[in-house]
Amino acid sequence: MNRFWKLLHMEVSRFWKLYITLFAMTLLMQGGGILYVCNRYMQTVKDKMGPAASTYAQYAEEHGVVTFSDILSEAQLYFLAPIALCIGGMGLYVFLIWYREWMGKNMFIYRLLMLPTERRHLYVAKLSAILLFVIGLVAFQLLILPLESALFTSVIDQALRGSTESVTSIIQNHAFLQILVPRTFTEFVMYYGGGALFVIVMFTAILLERSYRLKGIAAGVIYVGAAVLLMIAPMLIMNRDMNDYLYPNEIFIIELTIAILIGMMSLAISFFLMNKKLSV
Amino acid sequence: MIEFKSVRKKYGRKKVLQDVSFTAQKGNITCLIGINGVGKSTVLKAIMGLTPIDGGSILIDGMPVGKHIYEHVAYIPDHISMPPNMTVGASMQFMKDFYASWNEARAEEMLTFFKLKRSDRISELSKGNTAKLNLLHGLSLDVEYVLMDEPFSGIDAFSREQITEVFTSKLVEDRGVIITTHEINDIEHLIDEVVLLDNGFVKSQFNCEDMRMQEGKSVMDVMREVYIG
Question: Transmembrane residues, as ranges (chain A) (predicted)?
């Protein structure tokens, strides 16, 4: 097996337990939250119906039906908290995936840098692992949506439920899920390309720090600042001097070009640092 | 042959290697001697491309340092370079997966010789057993050169004996070995060449046998002359 794939396999294996924990946490918090909100809704319905004991159908006629999207909005905290934790966890892991190699007295970086393979394979394996983990988390979210919808169906009486929603319509009705699952290719490039660019730029900053230590921290901060400035520069110029001068798709192409340039420069700097400057 | 030519290296403002040149031949055990902090480990790391140098050049059989050397040179640092939660068996599998020069039969032989258990986690090994596993990782590679950084540092007498035995066995025979130490007594009888480092320079390089025959001096005698005056 190609050494890159072996490195990628190793990266995935090393994160496996934490990854399962993130899955479990998402499932438990979202599932628990939806169950809680559904039960609370049913209790409210029962309380409002009172001792007169009218039927659920009558209640629905008076107050309207509830959909899974409504429950999702009510359970916003339980739904978004694990996603935020996953994003935060992955954000931290962008750093940990490198720094753990230098941690402790058994520094693994000695062995990794002495592997008889291109050092960029190590970099690409770490980058691919992060991107795979993110895609995996999104896929898991999509997989558990029908399960959560089934929970809703099992708790809320049929008479109180609105028409069954497909996963697509659940996503379309939820502002944050629309970002996780973009509707158009342009949105996909914006959200996921942006995320990948963030990881690539942060990797460069980390490698600058690992290569030049204290001076590297300053270089890393300046590099990240410069990258952010370059990315927002078109917007700043547009707002100040060229209001409404360009069409949105033209702005998108300018941003995409800048992002590709930053990405390529970051990769070139990172590979150079890995080959020539990185120190154990 | 490993050629270290006018190598310079500084950490911050501290010049660790100012103008270090020496050669290490295949089939010889070359010992880098010097007090702590003199740059012995830096020399080995520089050969392995684990730390960049500020000047000079390093050649291994005439070729500069690059990914190709890792199938020809093994480095055994003064600590094991595997994650602590890995088992002995998993660490051997890792080496087998990545190195074409991994010699499984030799690894098994050393595993038995050192009485290590595959199922033990690296974090649970004693200092002596960790050093033995470290040695196993390095010596089970079919390489021409082996670099060892303080292999006897901080380990018990019995482990020391076992490791010394390795030096006189076929495991080291015919290979070029560079070993660093600041305690020469344990290995004086094993080494062929000595490189004395001090203040970023090579103070002296000599062949032990020649020194004994021609000047009647042991390595310790030469060290006294060089370091104490």
Answer: 16-37, 77-99, 120-144, 189-208, 220-239, 251-274
B2-218: which CATH topology?
Rossmann fold (3.40.50)
Chain B residues with CB under 8 Å of A105 CB are 79
Q: What is the pLDDT of residues B11-58, one digit of tens each?
A: 888 899 999 999 999 999 999 998 888 899 999 999 999 999 999 999
Nearest CA of chain A to the CA of B187: how many Å? Answer: 25
Which of A2, A114, A211 is the best residue to mutate to test the B interface, defined by the most B CB atoms within 10 Å of its own CB? Answer: A114
- Where residue B145 falls (left for φ over 0; alpha for ψ -120 to 50; beta otherwise) is beta
Domain boundaries, chain A: 1-162, 182-280
* pLDDT, tens digit (0-9, with 9 covering 90-100), for A102-152: 998 889 999 999 999 999 999 999 999 999 999 999 999 999 999 999 999
Whether the ipTM is more than 0.90: the answer is yes
Helices (H), chain A: 3-49, 56-63, 68-74, 76-99, 109-113, 119-155, 167-172, 175-180, 185-188, 194-240, 248-272
Cβ separation B67–A119 shorter than 8 A:
yes
- Taking the Cβ of residue B154 and every Cβ of chain A, the question of whether any pair is shorter than 8 Å is answered with no
